[in-house]
Design a protein that fits this description.
The chain has about 400 residues and is α/β, with parallel strands linked by helices. Helices cover about 35% and strands about 25% of the residues. The strands form six sheets. The chain has a seven-stranded mixed beta sheet with strand order 1-2-7-8-9-10-11. Strands 17, 18, 19, 22, 23 and 24 form a six-stranded parallel beta sheet that branches. The protein has a five-stranded mixed beta sheet with strand order 12-13-14-15-16, with no helix packed on it. It is elongated, with a radius of gyration of 24 Å. Bound molecules: MU-OXO-diiron. MU-OXO-diiron binds near residues 83 and 164. MU-OXO-diiron binds next to helix 2.
Length: about 400
């Protein structure tokens, strides 16, 4: 895709990746974009690069804007290879005067590319540089979501180049928030937050406080993935505030995998009991729902009810995968329960309970095991379990 001018003399020069479907465990079923931004001033500056297979797109876009790939400064807001793996090839072409990055950014670049000879210029939180007419302020965002990360704020343009934050894995020919369906945009943004940033939610809140004290006026937010927020940047800032709070809603997820449909029948009965309590319920069979889509629903859910049959003295593999993924992202403020069918040993429910305790999910019932196939009476007990969780959820969560 050709360069797009996002503000006077500031161009998007990134790349579109329509076909990527996995981003370290997150399903990117609508692809993604790698956004890089080129600023023309007395000094020409490039903010971030793109994933290595797309380096030619980047160089071509830079040539289209500048006529030649002459760049004075490269700003590395984040070293993860989707934003920096074009750097070695680009360095040979453009030979910039300086590479600006945080101290952790310099270490991480050295650990990735082993190039001591590059012209690193380490910057600190709050430091500014002049490009000519423009001032760039650097804002360290350590652990959002790598230790090296920072934002770059272009003061005169009131433009925040925000690295991964506020991004979405969504490949579109459009570049701006007001050019796409807003509800789909927010869905992709929430999936991104739930799967990439949730673990660091407390840091997001601290960052907001720190940035608030800096008094930055923000007209546009340009993330490194997806659409640029120009029509209402406050909308995504508010959403990040809400998602970081992790206040549970009266929303329950029955997440399960089943072997011969017994656990599935239990899931439906538990879901029925929850619905009787007038809480919002979703049944998510892990054979049909990817872990990262489940994670998006976890973001504002108040109750997580996990079901698995027992297989070889353990839980089914998709449930183990889901719990492992969830544990890494550390959701807060949830209640939970476990259920599942078994043939002779029945460890799955106990193992799920153990996993929930490790994640500090409040287990509101010891869990329900059914041998082989549930009777109508068993399913009635499952409904009762659903009602019990529904009542507990209504005490804890907002509608
Ligand atoms: Fe888009 Fe943390 O990389």
């Amino acid at each position: 895709m050709k360069p797009v001018e996002i503000a006077k003399n500031i161009h998007w020069v990134g790349a579109l990746d329509w076909n990527v479907r996995d981003f370290h465990g997150y399903t990117t079923y609508k692809g993604t974009t790698y956004n890089a931004y080129l600023v023309r001033d007395e000094k020409i500056a490039l903010f971030d690069t793109v994933k290595e297979p797309f380096k030619d797109d980047l160089v071509q876009n830079i040539r289209q804007v500048l006529g030649s790939p002459k760049i004075d400064y490269i700003i590395v807001n984040h070293v993860e290879p989707d934003h920096s793996s074009s750097l070695p090839a680009l360095m040979d072409v453009v030979k910039p005067e300086k590479i600006f990055c945080t101290s952790m950014g310099k270490n991480t670049l050295l650990e990735h590319y082993h190039r001591e000879d590059w012209p690193y210029e380490v910057v600190k939180h709050g430091q500014t540089i002049r490009l000519g007419q423009r001032t760039v302020k650097f804002i360290e965002t350590r652990m959002l979501h790598w230790p090296d990360a920072m934002f770059s704020y272009l003061e005169e343009d009131r433009l925040l180049i925000s690295s991964d934050a506020f991004g979405q894995h969504w490949c579109t020919s459009e570049r701006f928030d007001d050019e796409v369906d807003p509800s789909e945009l927010m869905k992709h943004a929430s999936k991104y937050f739930a799967n990439i940033l949730l673990l660091y939610a407390p840091l997001v809140k601290k960052l907001f406080e720190a940035v608030g004290k800096m008094g930055l006026e923000i007209k546009t937010i340009a993330p490194d993935h997806g659409l640029i927020w120009r029509s209402d940047p406050a909308k995504i800032l508010r959403a990040y505030g809400t998602w970081s709070d992790q206040k549970p809603k009266q929303k329950a997820l029955v997440i399960y995998d089943t072997m011969w449909h017994s656990t599935e029948k239990m899931a439906h009965a538990i879901g029925g009991g929850l619905a009787e309590e007038k809480v919002s319920v979703q049944l998510l069979d892990l054979k049909s729902n990817h872990r990262s889509d489940v994670m998006t629903e976890v973001l504002d859910a108040g109750a997580l009810i996990f079901g698995s049959a027992t297989l070889n003295n353990g839980m089914l593999p998709k449930m183990a995968d889901m719990l492992h993924y969830l544990r890494g992202l550390r959701p807060q403020n949830k209640i939970g329960a476990a259920f599942g069918s078994y043939g002779w040993s029945g460890e799955a429910v106990n193992l799920i309970n153990q996993a929930m305790e490790e994640m500090k999910i409040k287990v509101v019932d010891p869990g329900m095991k059914i041998k082989h196939f549930p009777t109508d009476k068993d399913l009635g007990t499952c409904e009762e379990l659903g009602r019990k969780i529904g009542k507990a959820l209504k005490e804890k969560a907002s509608p």
